[in-house]
Design goal:
Blueprint: E1 5-9, H1 13-23, E2 29-34, H2 37-48, E3 57-62, H3 76-79, H4 82-93, H5 98-101
Parallel strand pairs: 1-2, 2-3
């Protein structure tokens, strides 16, 4: 992993542990992606404590990576309103045709 970029999706306890463990391999960059901004900021703060002066670029991002950009920053309650559920269904299933399903 030396001089490589590491992408960690979901920087909860396991994601943070993976990032901290990977520091000893001197990656060029670690990118952490979490569901919420608070999770990303907390993970970044914790990981930075373990860098030990290494010049590893640690970047964060957040949002639901499994939905459209329009919906990715909504919390769970906002995501499941009737209007947004319709957007989700259209996003995932609008282009399904009989040929595609076969």
């Amino acid at each position: 992993m030396k001089n490589k970029t590491i992408l960690i999706l979901g920087a909860g306890q396991i994601g943070e542990a993976c990032a901290i463990r990977s520091i000893k391999n001197n990656p060029k960059k670690i990118i952490l992606h979490t569901l919420t901004k608070d999770e990303s900021l907390g993970a970044l703060k914790n990981i930075q404590k373990h860098l030990g002066g290494r010049s590893i670029d640690v970047q964060i991002s957040w949002g639901n990576a499994l939905v459209t950009e329009q919906l990715m920053y909504l919390d769970r309650n906002e995501l499941h309103t009737p209007a947004n559920r319709k957007k989700l269904i259209n996003y995932y299933y609008l282009y399904l045709s009989d040929d595609l399903i076969k």
